[in-house]
Design a protein that fits this description.
Blueprint lengths: L7 E8 L2 E10 L5 H12 L13 E5 L3 E4 L32 E4 L13 E4 L12 E7 L1 H8 L13 E8 L7
Antiparallel strand pairs: 1-2, 1-8, 2-7, 3-4, 4-6, 5-6, 5-7
Length: 178
């Protein structure tokens, strides 16, 4: 369990034509404040209408490893935006990829210190990601939705064969982005 003042956010997901469900996250603002605020702001949409996860896709899923999303521009992993107006640097690596449901940074082209809106949620423990990506949150509810995404068939480039779309997002207990 983490600091009880850490913000909690949600992503509501649609998998193909079916409702996938809601995933809630605790963001580690106590250890990664800049990264947590970026994700929180993209969930609420409060930094501008184009700065939201709403209608973005999960564009990659690697069974046994994790899902990737957050390309709020092209929806294919080639781009992203941050609430700060530019990419931002990695924060500390105190947190580890200790199991399934860890919310972590990911980059376009694997270039470090290039954080934007893209993120990854792990399907399993991954020591290989430690010190390369920054874990800044964890799933607190809705791990069954993450497991359902993991089961979606993918093509030879790990792209889901059906659209997986964030249909709503926001702060837990607050009004979601419409």
């Amino acid at each position: 369990m983490r600091h009880r003042r850490n913000p909690r956010v949600f992503l509501e997901v649609k998998i193909g034509a079916a409702a996938g469900g809601r995933v809630e996250f605790e963001l580690f603002a106590d250890t990664c404040p800049e990264t947590a605020e970026n994700f929180r702001g993209l969930c609420t949409g409060e930094y501008g209408p184009e700065l939201t996860y709403r209608n973005s896709k999960i564009f990659k899923s690697v069974k046994g490893e994790g899902l990737q999303g957050g390309d709020i521009i092209a929806n294919d992993g080639s781009s992203g935006l941050s609430v700060y107006g530019k990419p931002f640097r990695d924060e500390n690596s105190i947190n580890k990829h200790s199991g399934a449901g860890i919310l972590t940074t990911t980059y376009q082209g694997e270039k470090r210190h290039n954080n934007t809106s893209q993120y990854m949620v792990t399907y399993a423990r991954s020591r290989a990601l430690d010190f390369r990506h920054v874990p800044f949150g964890r799933v607190t509810r809705g791990m069954e939705v993450i497991r359902a995404i993991e089961k979606v068939p993918t093509d030879d480039q790990d792209r889901p064969r059906v659209d997986i779309i964030i249909v709503k997002c926001g702060m837990v207990g607050k009004k979601e982005v419409d």
